[in-house]
Amino acid sequence: MDMISAKDRGRIQAQMQRDESKIVNIVLSDAQQVAGEIEKATHEGIFMVDGRYYGYDSIKEINGL
């Protein structure tokens, strides 16, 4: 199973500290794609503004950062 790298996680957290848009497209390990605005990124995963949560182990790629 693919997983995003520590470098990608760092980019996510850096983006969260900016005032710019946090809207991203996330490609999940099962090839499903979801889009939305990130509320916060923790060491466990990404929480979206609409309440969805994605663990890093289920994320293959994040676009829009």
Concise account of the structure shown:
With 65 residues, the chain is an alpha+beta fold. It is built from one helix and five strands. The relative contact order is 0.29.
Describe it.
The chain has a five-stranded antiparallel sheet with strand order 4-3-2-1-5. It is globular and about 30 Å long. 17% of the residues lie in helices and 42% in strands. The protein has a single domain (6-63), classed as SH3 type barrels. The relative contact order is 0.29. With 65 residues, the protein is an alpha+beta fold. The mean pLDDT is 86. The protein has one helix and five strands.
Let me know the number of strands.
Answer: 5
In CATH, the topology is named SH3 type barrels
Inertia-based shape: globular
Q: Helix count, per DSSP?
A: 1
**Residue share in helices?**
10-25%
- The CA-CA distance between the termini, in Å, is 23 Å
- State the name of the first-level CATH class: Mainly Beta
The CATH architecture name reads: Roll
Domain module tally: 1
**Backbone structural class:** alpha+beta
**Run of helices and strands:** HEEEEE
The major beta sheet can be summarized as: 5 strands, antiparallel
CA-based gyration radius: 11 Å
Mean pLDDT, to the nearest integer, reads 86
What percentage of amino acids are in beta strands? 35-45%
